[in-house]
């Protein structure tokens, strides 16, 4: 999901139509967007865009382009004339293993206002961050063309090379930039990983930028006075770099500029042939209208389909019933399969008008037997008068160890927790219930609580998930007998015979704790909670209780589930 | 005299009070209260028996009592102001007006009142501001002072003569005293034989029932107005109860339950759902990685290599795929399930067709826990498949969820995006206060998802924001309350 800031006035301008804010909201839905915020006094609009694979939509021009298709104001792939700029970029073969691809174009009559520069920077930044995978996969640069001489060199350079980076006054060497400049600190790791420094130079030696880190302060600075600029995209994925250039060029054209082509001279180590950018080669895809109709549940004719795809800014290249050949705009790389075109058709039809049908498939529904078993245990424990709890499975290691007088043990730990509070998975439930009781010492006693829930454990061969039932009773008069009578009640209704054998457990009082044996296997623990635990948790009444593992109860059908 | 034919059953305590009243024939309730061990409440209770059986009568009486005011009490303590002035004048010659207040230690108003009084009695003259006693042995209002002093001692005082002036000078006030006078109507001796004394009891016992002795006792009335002792019975966690309801709704629509593990392989959470291995959603900030073990094992099944193929070149789906080298090591890494769709992915193995499935699963996201985010939450999702199923049926399924689960006819569809479905739709429902809110979404699984599992029919994947629904229905604004540890809420939250 991407958020962009734009202006309501600008949106209407780009749409060529006055709309109310509600109408705009309705139209934006067609472009998978919605209004997150609108501040009327500042004419500020924040849009949330749900797709991560449509960077062409991340500016007012792109959004308007899409909506004008829906409105029928424009259709088909937008085209524009491209003459040669007579600029060339020569790529260094040494970049083959690190950042080999570059796409460039020239834009003239760019009519920049301060607002427009901000919008371009926002678009570039959003693309760099997400589609460009934080500039690792691709990054964008824009330069003052009047200061650049052809051929531009995109090459590896020695670290002693110096230039004044954007926002600074003094020349810095490349390692200095990585260390001292904010962008160097943010993106320097990418360059450090290359073990060499890429650089973009004008033919006369002026520095354009250190890709993907920072532009120079002169050539790399765009202001309202700039009338012609060079747009550049470098990166590790050829397709990505070129589609981004196409998006930027289309955006500039929509704004009223003219695009001029740039030649990219690749060495054979990187690509067989040179490129002329922007690469506006149009990809085509065949769709079978009968298959699409079956998929959507519609009855669209070839003619309907043509109209609908044209609304989505596609071209219909040829028709050979039932095949329709569609051409995809060069600023989109998200159409992988005919189902993607089917979605475009559905959107063009308006999802609220296409007609929902009640599906006719008869199936019966049911809970899984293990869930039925869990519910039986819940119902029985409710019958003791206990209040049911739902606690988190992801918890604080202290709750599972220190707070219940247990040593640190092999718990399932998270590598990237946001805080210690949610950093391990529980392997037992009663510590979570003790935690609940510690937070309710001002509520009336007796406090009887239980939870039937999942736990996770590491075993020899795998990681397992299973359901446990834990039950605690806190009261001034609480004794082992209470826990025992309820356990007995539970097993009686489960028709399970059991034994309790003396056992020692650090959470429980010595001599007042037992392991629960069913079918000769230990399936749980019962006892009076040790005063050390009560003190640690600042609980001032005795607590008794038990925890049992449901997969070990024969009359239930709960199972242990292995992740692998 | 009332004629009583049958026995009168009276509690023992009531009989005792009857005898007391009988001795003196007339007594005030306050008098009885003094000598009885009972508090007023109980006393009234027993008197009720006597009054209702017409053995005594009760009458309210209002009388007045005279009480000292603050000023009166002060006059007792320090003497009446006029007497104080006289004392000072006796001791000091030539007392000036201006100095008198200081000497006395009172305010000017009070002093002037005293001066006025003495002047009226011709006991003083004022000459050029100097106050002079007219004769040496002046005595003023000694009797009035005595009455005040007697009143202060609560002695019986005949103060009638002095009352007007005491009242006028605000030294006393008249206080209304209410009392109840009880009068004997029927002498005890006359009715004694008809009285059956019974001890009052508060409980019936099995012995009494068995041998009929309950007839000898009177069972105390139960005070229906008293609040009962607090009882916290067994009850389901309110949010869990709601989830049970959701399950019933879905079963009623023909869905089978499916479940999966909390700790999941990236394979099921991402790869099988055609999410590219370099996709930003698989990053550090978007999914919890397990530290130990960090790696699991991929299933030894054909579908694993087919998933690899779709990622690399689209396999036979007609898709371009992601065009990269797919890493089995990355796919075997362990994460905490980020969405319920991983359960659906597992269910694609040997998927019965037609079928409808649902799951309610705990899912995990690395988010700072606050009023709108949890690190651990529930997701409701599932799949529907049949050879005949179409996109319009998908819209039909979503509309059924709107009407049957969100219980509203006012809903809307919007185009949406999920990496594993195409087309994708968002379902919004209208809340009377919040306007349209997102309730769920659905899409048809891309062929890159279903083909590796040998599925040729369309499979619809759907999901509902059930936590949101619960919060909206119960007007809860803080999502943390769903897993509340507060017994106060858990004990008393409503279920309807």
Describe this structure in words.
Helices cover 29% and strands 30% of the residues of chain A. Chain A has 564 residues and is an alpha+beta fold. In chain A, the strands form six sheets. In chain A, strands 4, 5, 6, 7, 10, 11, 12, 13, 14 and 15 form a ten-stranded mixed sheet that branches. Chain A has 15 helices and 29 strands. The radius of gyration of chain A is 33 Å and the shape is elongated. In chain A, α1 crosses α3 (60-71), α5 crosses α6 (182-194) and α9 packs across α10 (338-349). By secondary structure, chain B is α+β, with helices and mostly antiparallel strands. Chain B folds into three domains: 8-64 and 176-219, Winged helix-like DNA-binding domain superfamily/Winged helix DNA-binding domain (Arc Repressor Mutant, subunit A), CATH 1.10.10.10; 70-168, Arc Repressor Mutant, subunit A (Orthogonal Bundle), CATH 1.10.10.10; 239-492, BirA Bifunctional Protein, domain 2 (2-Layer Sandwich), CATH 3.30.930. Chain B is built from 20 helices and 20 strands. In chain B, the strands form six sheets. A seven-stranded mixed sheet of chain B has the order 11-15-16-20-19-18-17, with helices on both faces. A three-stranded antiparallel sheet of chain B has the order 2-7-3. A three-stranded antiparallel sheet of chain B has the order 4-6-5. The radius of gyration of chain B is 47 Å and the shape is elongated. Chain B starts with 7 loop residues before the first strand and ends with a helix. The model of chain B has no long low-confidence stretch (mean pLDDT 89). Chains A and B meet through α8, α10, α11, β19 and β21 of A and α12, β11, β12, β13 and β15 of B. β21 (413-414) of chain A pairs antiparallel with β13 (290-292) of chain B.
